Amino acid sequence: MIYIQPLRDNAPPPPGLRQWPAPGHSAVSYGAELAGQHESITSRFGEMDVRLEPAGLASISEPMIYVRPAKPMTEGLYVSAWGNPEGTVFGEPLSIQPATGFFVLITATCLVPALALTVVACRTGSVKRDRRRSVLHAMGASRRHRLLVDLGESAPPVLAGAAMAVLAMYVWQGTNWSLPKVNYVITVDYLQAHLVPFFASAGLAALVVLTAAVTVQPRTAYASDKGQGRTLIRVAQWLCPLAFAMAFFGPSLFSAQDNEMLFLLLYATGALTALLLLPAALSALTTQMGRLLGWWGRHAGRPAALLAGRWIAASPAAVARVVTSIVLLIGLSAQLYTWNNRTTESDATALATQRMLNSSVVVVDGVDRNPPQQLQSFVAALPAGQKVLAVYSSDSPQRQARTVLLGSDAALRQGGLPVPLNEQESLTASVEQTDSKRGRALLQTADLMAEGTVSIERGDIHETKNLQTLQVIASTGHKIDGPSVKHLANQMLKP
Question: What is the strand order of the sheet 2-3 is part of?
Answer without folding.
Answer: 2-3, 65-67, 26-28, 48-51
